[in-house]
Design a protein that fits this description.
GO molecular function, one term: acetylesterase activity
Subcellular location: Secreted
Distance between the termini: 56 Å
Bound molecules: 2-acetamido-2-deoxy-beta-D-glucopyranose
Number of helices: 16
Subunit structure: Interacts with CLC.
Strand order of the largest sheet: 3-4-8-10-9-11-12-13-14-15-16
Family: Belongs to the type-B carboxylesterase/lipase family.
Helix content: 25-40%
Enzyme class: hydrolase
Largest sheet: 11 strands, mixed
């Protein structure tokens, strides 16, 4: 009776009080047709906006519901104290304090641990609907749960798939991820925020018409990696049923920081803190905007110093949220269904920082620059690593040596190293440890719509990083004038696969028709290529096998240079990538 997590009152009196408030509130709401159905949770009641979508469909939108209190500096999120009366959840809340896009100032607030909910009512009032929780990307540095230009509005997914969509905020930048690698500043605060949001949804979504046993996480880039981290931590046991990682997994070379103390010291020096035993105390007292500005992303790069290594604020193995390296934690996801995939040119947006010539129309990219890039990614193995890599990546050139081939190869190298190969390793580890959990793999290849029209996109650019987002969130339907009919096809396909998966764990089943049956990854390393023209011929197997094999087997087996320290070691996980062949 007294074992209640939310306060000193006993369960029965709390529940009774809650019940009577809810009945009163519901009666009141019934008379107000412009209002939403509202909700009632242990910590308070509220109402959102009721949007009419036609004859027998309407949707409740709840904006800016707090799932935790204003967080303490470098601390785990705290419980929200609750509120009296009825909360009007009508406005999105500010994004978490972060750098502006030009990195000249900050924007947002430290009071940012809020979520937004879209609840579809189709014919009847929602009850027991599957729930999809979106974790946004932005390099663990920027972005918000709603995104610029309402990018992550859940309305189209919720309406077309008849699922509840939730988007959550979490701390980013130095305030979200600065760590000394020990108990002084343990790190991972942003991941704890996400975890608190998941726990909130699990506890409360029933009162919004959701099924707490049918929660699917989805996210892209740093959000895709976050989704993976949330399935690997022991702190979410029993709360997550399925997960989708788009263009990012926990094993990506940018997702885990190996030597966080070095970064913390750099930040400390920028804000005039000492780097001795007083460092953490000093950082805790530093003005939050100054601290945020001290975490700027260095975009100066070259093929010798690829920009991916400048992403220095991310997760750490802290012995708590992550008790071990992510590659050793996949047993925690054994009963979680998992989709992971990449865009076929995910590496373009980032590799163009390193090798500027790839975006210049009438300028060739030197083979020497490509070799420098490969040398950087294989550095611990010395010249031998670069030479082996080059021979793998240039093997097809004799037949197709046109000026674009070097540029495309540079993009492939970026795509493979930064996204694709780690994703294949994650899929294999998931499949290997799965008990009831199913595993699915995809490659998104719809050509960039700005192709040939808007620099820096040239005609050969297919699916760049983040290109999938507009289709998953149904933009071709909500902004039809900006798209062609074929874009509505690909958007419809993705929403159908994603929401079917959220309902049943099988992207092919759940009520929405799909163009092609997407086979399990475990049946011969099969994967689905997603494109507006997809047919049976878009099911493939063994994604980029030769290259995956190089990074996961050939390269790790080469001797490391005597001076290659552990922390410089190439971050690709060495593992038996395929459970079948390779
Ligand atoms: C929301 O609006 C629809 C009409 O669009 C209406 O049928 C429904 O009763 C409204 N819901 C509430 C709770 O008032
Ligand atoms: C930075 O932003 C704050 C608040 O938005 C504003 O008051 C301040 O003038 C800005 N500083 C600069 C240098 O632009
Ligand atoms: C650090 O100290 C220098 C020199 O005193 C000063 O110019 C600078 O503004 C200080 N930086 C911060 C973040 O306080
Ligand atoms: C940014 O990174 C480049 C190399 O990648 C380095 O030379 C430069 O010093 C860095 N700039 C800052 C401000 O840290
Ligand atoms: C590709 O062709 C160019 C000339 O068209 C040549 O200079 C270059 O060496 C060739 N590269 C390879 C790897 O064959
Ligand atoms: C879109 O899909 C429909 C069938 O669902 C098909 O008839 C049409 O040709 C497709 N359009 C494009 C542009 O692919
Ligand atoms: C999840 O949702 C689907 C669709 O509403 C339903 O069929 C299923 O029983 C729910 N529960 C579980 C545990 O999958
Ligand atoms: C679409 O698919 C058909 C046959 O499946 C093929 O002939 C055609 O080239 C494809 N078009 C594109 C743009 O991929
Ligand atoms: C390690 O040794 C190689 C040559 O053996 C050299 O090129 C490289 O600069 C050295 N790296 C460091 C960090 O000293
Ligand atoms: C790979 O598999 C072989 C044989 O199945 C095993 O001996 C080896 O330890 C495995 N390596 C890793 C890194 O798991």
């Amino acid at each position: 009776m007294s074992n209640v997590p939310w306060g000193s009152r006993s369960y029965s009196s709390d529940a009774m009080a809650l019940l009577s408030i809810c009945v009163a509130v519901a009666l009141f709401w019934e008379a107000v047709s412009a209002a939403s159905l509202g909700w009632c949770t242990r910590r308070g009641n509220g109402e959102g906006e009721n949007i009419s979508l036609g004859e027998s469909r309407h949707m409740d939108v709840f904006r800016g519901i707090p799932f935790a209190d204003i967080p303490g500096r470098f601390e785990k999120p705290k419980k929200h104290p609750g509120w009296d009366g009825v909360m009007e959840a009508m406005e999105y809340k500010p994004r978490c304090l972060q750098l502006n896009l030009r990195q000249t100032n900050t924007t947002g607030s430290q009071d940012c641990l809020y979520l937004n909910i879209w609840v579809p009512h189709q014919g009847a009032v929602a009850s027991n609907l599957p729930v999809m929780v979106w974790i946004h990307g932005g390099a663990f540095l920027i972005e918000s749960p709603i995104g610029d230009d309402n990018r992550y509005s859940g309305q189209e997914i919720a309406d077309r798939g008849n699922v509840i969509v939730v988007t959550v905020g979490y701390r980013v930048g130095t305030l979200g991820f600065l760590s000394t690698g020990d108990s002084d500043l343990p790190g991972n605060y942003g991941l704890w925020d996400q975890q608190a949001a998941i726990a909130w949804v699990h506890r409360n979504i029933r009162s919004f018409g959701g099924d707490p046993d049918n929660i699917t996480l989805f996210g892209e880039s740093a959000g895709g990696a976050s989704v993976n981290f949330q399935t690997l931590t022991p702190h979410n046991k029993g709360m997550i049923r399925r997960a989708i990682s788009q263009s990012g997994v926990a094993l990506c070379p940018w997702a885990i920081i190996k030597n966080p103390r070095k970064i913390a010291e750099q930040v400390a020096r920028k804000v005039n803190c000492t780097t001795d035993s007083g460092m953490a105390a000093c950082l805790k007292l530093t003005n939050p905007a100054q601290l945020t500005l001290a975490g700027t992303f260095n975009t100066t790069s070259s093929p010798d110093h690829p920009v991916v290594y400048n992403l220095v604020l991310a997760a750490v193995v802290d012995g708590d949220f992550l008790p071990d390296h992510p590659s050793n934690l996949f047993h925690n996801a054994a009963d979680i269904d998992y989709i992971a995939g990449v865009n076929n040119m995910d590496g373009y947006f980032i590799t163009r920082y390193d090798t500027l010539s790839i975006i210049r129309l009438f300028v060739n990219t030197d083979v020497a620059d490509l070799k420098r890039l490969l040398a950087a990614y294989t550095r611990p193995k010395g010249i031998k690593g670069m030479e082996e890599a080059f021979s793998v990546y240039s093997a097809d050139w004799s037949t197709t040596n046109v000026s674009e081939i070097v540029k495309k190869t540079a993009v492939d190298v970026g795509t493979d190293y930064i996204f694709l190969v780690p994703t294949q390793v994650a899929l294999n580890l998931h499949a290997k440890h799965a008990t009831t959990g199913r595993t699915y793999s995809y490659m998104f290849s719809e050509p960039n719509y700005k192709e040939g029209v808007e620099p820096p996109y040239t005609s050969w650019i297919e699916a760049d990083h983040t290109d999938d987002l507009q289709y998953v969130f149904g933009k071709p339907f909500s902004s039809p004038q900006r798209y062609l009919p074929r874009h509505r096809n690909v958007s419809g396909y993705m929403i159908a696969y994603w929401t079917n998966f959220a309902k049943t764990g099988d992207p092919n089943q759940g009520g929405s028709e799909v163009p092609v049956t997407w086979p399990l990854f475990t049946s011969g390393d099969q994967y689905l290529e997603i494109h507006h023209n997809m047919s049976e011929s878009y099911v493939h197997e063994k994604m980029r096998m030769r290259f995956v094999h190089f990074w996961t087997s050939v390269l790790p087996s080469l001797p490391s240079l005597p001076n290659a320290t552990k922390s410089e070691e190439t971050q690709i996980v060495s593992s038996n990538v395929s459970h079948t062949t390779i």
